[in-house]
Write a structure and sequence with these properties.
14% strand, Uracil-DNA Glycosylase, subunit E, 214 residues, alpha/beta, 9 helices
Length: 214
């Protein structure tokens, strides 16, 4: 079995575990767990904030209006949803789409770390403040760091971190759409550079069972 197939199976085991997660009170109000979606061997991974109402119903991340905008941004750089992997900081919807709380982020962090370690993307594109601050480990806001690639390590995996505004922001501030398009336009070159400088190799990190996730 290929390394990619082994990692895909590990992602599915993680997804099955997540569907029964009760680590924080968010499980009490969810319809379904929104684990992640896309190519388990993708070069590009997106990390958003948390599921919304549409995602909570469908179990798929970014299927509402922000998701349609994300699909359009991907199309603009010659990619489709099936060629990337999409996940969120939180796997369950916060009530009323409120901001994630620190204890909820802490409860879900290990799951996201395992997803990054298994997918092994060359570039992780963080969408908005919460994802950017979590993966960078720094307090800098998205307005300051968007469109600026930086090296990062998350879950034992070295990646190129690329923060951009959350697509939902462009739904409320249409002028931001141009900024998002400009930032997305740099992604193909960034992926190519990241792959040349650090070719992807089989992960040496511990499986999820050893990390205490299962």
């Amino acid at each position: 079995m290929s390394d990619a197939a082994v990692r895909a199976q590990a992602l599915e085991r993680l997804a099955e575990h997540l569907r029964g997660c009760t680590r924080c009170p968010l499980h009490e109000g969810r319809t379904t767990v929104v684990v992640g979606d896309g190519d388990p061997d993708a070069d590009l991974m997106f990390v958003g904030e948390a599921p919304g109402a549409n995602e909570d119903r469908s179990g798929v991340p970014f299927v509402g209006q922000a998701g349609k905008l994300l699909d359009g941004l991907l199309e603009g750089i010659g990619l489709s949803r099936g060629q990337v992997f999409i996940a969120n900081v939180l796997k369950c919807r916060p009530p009323g789409n409120r901001d994630p709380r620190p204890e909820e982020i802490d409860a879900c962090r290990g799951y996201l770390e395992e997803q990054v370690a298994l997918v092994r993307p060359a570039v992780v594109c963080t969408l908005g403040n919460f994802a950017t601050k979590l993966l960078s480990g720094r307090p800098d806001g998205i307005s300051t760091v968007h469109g600026r690639p930086q090296p990062a390590e998350f879950g034992g995996a070295g990646v190129t971190l690329y923060p951009v505004f959350h697509p939902a922001a462009a739904l409320y501030t249409r002028a931001m759409l141009g900024t998002l398009q400009e930032d997305f336009a740099r992604l193909p070159g960034l992926i190519a550079t990241a792959n040349r400088s650090a070719p992807r190799t089989p992960s040496a990190g511990p499986p999820a069972e050893q990390m205490g996730l299962f």
